[in-house]
Amino acid sequence: MQLAQSGFKILLLVIILFIIAIIFRERRRVTIPFSGLWFLTDYKSKRSLLKYLTDLLRILGIIFLVIALARPQRVEKGLYSHIEGVDIVLVLDRSGSMISEDFKPKNRLDTAKNVISEFIDKRQNDRIGLVIFARNSYLQAPLTLDHAIIKKVLDKVEIAQGEEDGTAIGMGLMNGINRLKNSNAKSKIIILLTDGVNNAGAVDPQTAAKVAEAYNIKIYTIGVGTEGYAPVPFYHPIFGKVYQNVKVEIDEEILTKISEITRGVFYRATNPQRLRQIYNEIDKLEKSKYEQKITNYKEEYFVFAFIGLLFLFVEILLRNTLFLEIF
Fold first, then answer.
1. Counting CB atoms within 10 angstroms of each CB, which of 86, 193, 196, 216 has the fewest?
2. Which residues of 183-222 are buried (b: 16+ CB within 10 A; e: fewer)?
């Protein structure tokens, strides 16, 4: 048995001393010396002695109520549960082609952000980091259990414009590897999502994959984009928003090799439904378990509260019946 609110121990002692002081003060009588009737000094009726019972009941009642406020708990045997935890870095392509609207009702990037956000919600016990890339690669969020921050940062990712446009897959992977190489997690994975061909950066994707293999990092690669041609919006100075069909080019061969080198899997997503299914599959594949001791506490305050109230009820009942005093 233990008290959840240990501060009430001091309060309990103070209340007990305070009650005792009040009772003794109430019981103190002024004596007047007089002659005769000396034999009454040795007389004590049983009824007068029983009057102290009401004081005792009041003290016990208050003591039990204070104990109840301190929330007594019974400690049950410690249990062990298996918690699933993985270190994950999400590497997201934000190149200009991600604006293609073949993933209705939104473009590829917005759809990918929504699906990834759902994936993050399922990984409550995982540390997750976020890397984005176009022509250059940037760390947006380090490995963290604060998934609300990850989702907030993810929501702000935008399509690369102008000179920032490009697809540096190798650089994106290296940035993710740097976040994971010193991790002590049993399972370390990168989930790379891209819709293009590596055309920028100083690191070849296969070289990055070999580095990942050396650090025991598994890479899942996802190629997003419909088959054939995809509608890409642009703004015409006269007609406003118009569309141009652009051929979808995804380097499936390189993405497959990246996954094979690191013992991962390559996936092809041609629509939002398939993309969501892919992240669900990865969620089921990547689950490493570790033991965690859980100690259960059973609340016992209601027992003490009941006993305390019972004592006070009996004390009030006795004072208003058997020990009723008329002044």
1. 216
2. bebebbbbbbbbbbebebbebebeebbebbeeeebbbbbb
Judge contact between 141 and 149, C-beta under 8 A. yes
Looking at mean pLDDT, say which of 31-40, 273-282, 308-317 comes out highest: 273-282
Which phi and psi (to 5°) does residue 184 adopt?
-100, 10
Cis-peptide, bond into residue 233, ω within 30° of zero? no
Exposed / middle / buried, residue 27 (Cβ in 10 Å: 0-12, 13-18, 19+) = exposed
Centre a 10 Å sphere on the Cβ of residue 237 and count the other Cβ atoms it contains: 5
pLDDT at residue 4, rounded to an integer: 62
Q: How far apart are CA 327 and CA 325, in angstroms?
A: 6
Of the candidates 93, 107, 96, the residue with the CA atom closest to the CA atom of residue 226? 107
In angstroms, the first-to-last Cα distance of the chain is 45
CA distance to 99, 138, 201, 231, 268, per residue, from 164 (Å):
14, 12, 12, 22, 26
- Convert the pLDDT of each residue in 46-90 to its tens digit: 555 566 677 788 878 888 887 777 777 777 666 555 666 799 999
- Predicted confidence (pLDDT) per residue in 182-196, tens digit: 998 889 999 999 999
What is the distance between the alpha carbons of residues 61 and 317, in angstroms, rounded to a whole number? 13
- 202, 291, 292, 293 from 78: Cα distances, Å: 53, 12, 10, 6
Model pLDDT, residue 241: 80
Positive or negative: CA dihedral 244, 267, 175, 153: positive
**pTM for this one?**
0.65
The answer to whether the beta carbons of residues 294 and 126 sit under 8 Å apart is no
Full 3-state SS string of 17-36: HHHHHHHHHHHCCCCCCCCC
